[in-house]
Structures are given as structure tokens and as C-alpha cells.
Amino acid sequence: MMKFCGIIRVYRLLKTPVYKEYFSGTNTKLTGDPPLFVSGSYDAPMSEIPAAPSTSTNRRKIITKPVLAWASWDWGSAAINAVMTTFVFTVYLTSDLFGNKDANSVVLGNGLAIAGVAIALLAPVTGLRSDAGGRRRFWLGVNTVIVALLTAACFFVFPEPRFLVLGVTLIALASVFSEFAAVNYNAMLPQISTPSTIGKVSGFGWGMGYLGGILALAIVLFTLVTPIFDWAGASDANSLNLRLVAVFSAVWFMGFGLPVLFAVPEIPGDPGGPRFTILQSYKELWRRVVALAHADRHTVYFLFASAVFRDGLAAVFTFGGIIAAGTFGFPLQQVIIFAIVGNVVAAAGAMVGGMLDDRIGPKRVIVISLVGLLVAGLGVFFSPEASGFWIFGLLLCLFVGPAQASSRAFLARLAPAGQEGELFGLYATTGRAVSFLAPALFAASIALATPHVAEAQRYGILGILVVLLLGLLLLIPVRGPRTST
């Protein structure tokens, strides 16, 4: 009886006008797999739509020119994420070159918090407007250029206390426009993949990002931080070598961010569609969120669950270097070396996770990864020596990649055609809405442990693990999209 009902359901689906046009060939705009959603509804995720017949060659060809160009942007953005905001330039800003370290950290934290609020308020609106106007690629390009210019301007942040606010402002603005760019970049994922390859393509993009970070960190380490040959730019006079890190990162990002603007076509706009002002955009966004909650509440559940565990994933890298240096005694050079090796492991994990994503589904990949992160995190906490951090820290990196890649693929499988930017804008917003959680629990765990133990920083690991566990518990009841094979 169930099989008979299933046959009836597929028959009715194939009789819809959009599918009749697709299989008859009269709709020339539909290529590859069938549309992600029928009639733009939220109740028919792309993974539940039967895939169109394709040749074996097309099934095998996952890494196409558009995919390579798209992943190149991830490769380039790694210089901003790994070099500027995580391991090098923010360490420079919070050093005693700018005054008291603790005070510098407070200024940086406040600046990034303000940036987070701006992203939370504006990211979904930027996605909505780019979708409606058919200018997704255009705004990706504009925001990429702005990030590159802001990053390059960090060269003028000289090692004096009066330049601290300038440096923090530039980093905060770069993070805002980088997130705006990422909204449109992530929304391109369904354009360059099919329901049966979306996990692999997402994993490939994350893997390319990690590999880009590896090479960028290696270049910075061996040419600027601890140069293996003498040249004028390696001088530490007036911190020239660290200021040149900003110029290098800007050129790296811009150079590798350009191909996607030429290889991935612009989405078609709707000439007769509505044009929203900023205020109207918020009203329309709220209307669609309410409609989304009524039509497919599991998508809303996933947005909140992923916001929590993604905050924990970000904290693994954000505080990983701090724990390596403060708890296990790593010097800066060794921290960067660990970051390079960790990115190699994370890239491998992301690519393997992407392949598993298309086989067993993104939710299972995320659950397995979060469990692995909890086990590895406990290993780091109980490790008495640096060797334990190397072992369990690299295990953390192994599971971070698949969780990040499959989280993006999960949402892309649910995104209605033509509304990807809007949904990924909400993805960015919900992530920022709880971005205080892991840092707050990290700090609170250390503060609670300080009166009782000598090495209190180690207990910050437990705060991060609490966030990952909470995200896992919130994810378990969420219905995952089915994969297409």
C-alpha cells in the first residue's frame, strides 16, 4: 500500500507544469536536475524531488569549471579568516605594542561585537534584495572588493596605541562586508551543483578554503614572521613585516576571489517584481520568516540548532591558538605550524564529509562530527602535555570540517529556488545572534576555575564543549533532508 501511494505521489509530481516542461524540453531554462522546489513551496525540499535522467559522464563530473571558480573564492577568503582575524593580525593588535594587552583585547572584542550586531541586522536583508534584483554575483563582487580594500588599509596601522582603534575598526568593517559577501557566495551553491552532488561540492569548497589557509599561513610564516631568507619586507622595524601581512592577505583574497565572478552566471531578476526599500525589506523578511515557520518549521529549527553548534565550531579555531600557547606553552611559530597542520586535517575531513553527505545525508554527518568533537575536546582537556594537544587537537580539526560543510549543504538542500540568498542571510543572522555564547562560556569556565586550580585556562575547553553539546541536542529532533543518489 505504501509503495502504491508513493507511485501516485511521484505521478502527480511529474504531471505538474514545470516538470512536464522539463521532461518535454520546452523549458530551456531548466538544465541538469529538476527545479529545487515545485511552485516555490517550502514543503518539497530538493532532496525529495526525483533527479532527472543524466548520463554517467555527468554523474561522475563533480568538479566542473564553475565549481573550481566558486571554490577559489573560499581559497582566497582563507587569508582573511586564518591570517587576519585568527592567527596573525589580531594577535598583533592585542599585543603590548598597542598598550595594555587586556585593554586591547576588550577594544577588539567590543569592535567585533558591534560588527556582529550589524551583520545580524543587515545580512538577511542584503540576501533578500540580491535575490529579488537578480544581482547576486554583482554584490558578491562589490563586497569582495570592499573587504580587500579594508584589509589592505590595515598596512597603515602602525604599532602605536593611537592606531589601535583604527586597526579594530578596519578589522570589524572587513568582517561585516566579508559576511555580506559570504551570504551571496553560499547562495550560489545550488547554482553549481545538483541534488546528488551538493554535499560533495560544499565539502570541496570548505576543503579548498582550508588548503588556501594552509598555503597563506605558510607564506606568512616563512616570509614575514620568521623569514627563511633576508629581504626588505621581513624587517620588524615599525612592525613592517606584520603590516605587510595585511597587504598580502588583500592581494590573496582579491586574486583568488575573482574567478567566480566570471565563471558563475548571474541569476535572472524579475523585471516586474517588487522593489523593496530597507524598511519594506524588513517587513517582507518577517512575512517570509513567519510563512517559513508555518510551512516547514524544521528549517527554522535547523537555523537555531546550527547557530549554536556553529558558534562552538568557530570557538574551536578562535580559542585553539590561545589554549595552545597559554595552556600547553606553544610559541607563536609553533602555533602557526599547528594551524597549518590543522588546516590540512580539516580540509581532508571536509572533503570526506562531503562525500558521506551525499550518501548518508547532512544531518548524520553533522551528528557524527559533533560527537567526535566532544570526544576529542575531552581528550584535549585531560591531556597533561603538548603531545596530547597535538593528537586530540588535530582530531578536533578533523571533525570541524565536515560539520561546517554539511551544515551549509543541509540548508542549501532546503532553500527554495530564487530565495537562497534570503535563507543564507538568515543563516548568517542566526549564527551571529548567539555568537556570544561560546566566548562567554569559555570565559565563565575559566573564571569559575581560577580560585581552585593553577591552570584555569584549560577549563575554558569545557565551556566550548557545552556549546557543542547543546547544539547537538537541538539538532537531534530536526528532520534532515533526504539525499538524492
Protein model, in words:
The protein has helices at residues 2-14, 17-24, 56-60, 65-87, 89-93, 101-133, 136-153, 164-187, 189-192, 198-225, 240-257, 259-263, 278-295, 297-318, 320-326, 332-360, 362-382, 386-414, 420-433, 437-449, 460-475. With 485 residues, it is mainly α. The protein has one domain: Up-down Bundle (Growth Hormone, Chain: A), CATH 1.20.1250.20. α6 packs parallel to α8 (164-187) and α17 runs antiparallel to α18.
Q: What general form does the structure show?
A: globular
Helix/strand-derived category reads: mainly alpha
Instruction: From the alpha carbons, calculate the radius of gyration and give it in angstroms.
Output: 23 Å
- Low-pLDDT residue intervals, each spanning 5 or more residues: 1-59
Secondary structure: helix percent: over 70%
The second-level CATH architecture is Up-down Bundle
Strand count:
0
Largest sheet: none
**CATH class designation:** Mainly Alpha
Number of helices: 21
> Which H/E pattern describes the elements?
HHHHHHHHHHHHHHHHHHHHH
Distance between the termini: 24 Å
The name of the CATH superfamily reads: MFS general substrate transporter like domains
* Count of individual domains: 1
Give the CATH topology. Answer: Growth Hormone, Chain: A
Share of β-strand residues: under 5%
Mean pLDDT: 79
Short account of what is shown:
The protein has 485 residues and is mostly helical. The protein contains 21 helices and no strands.
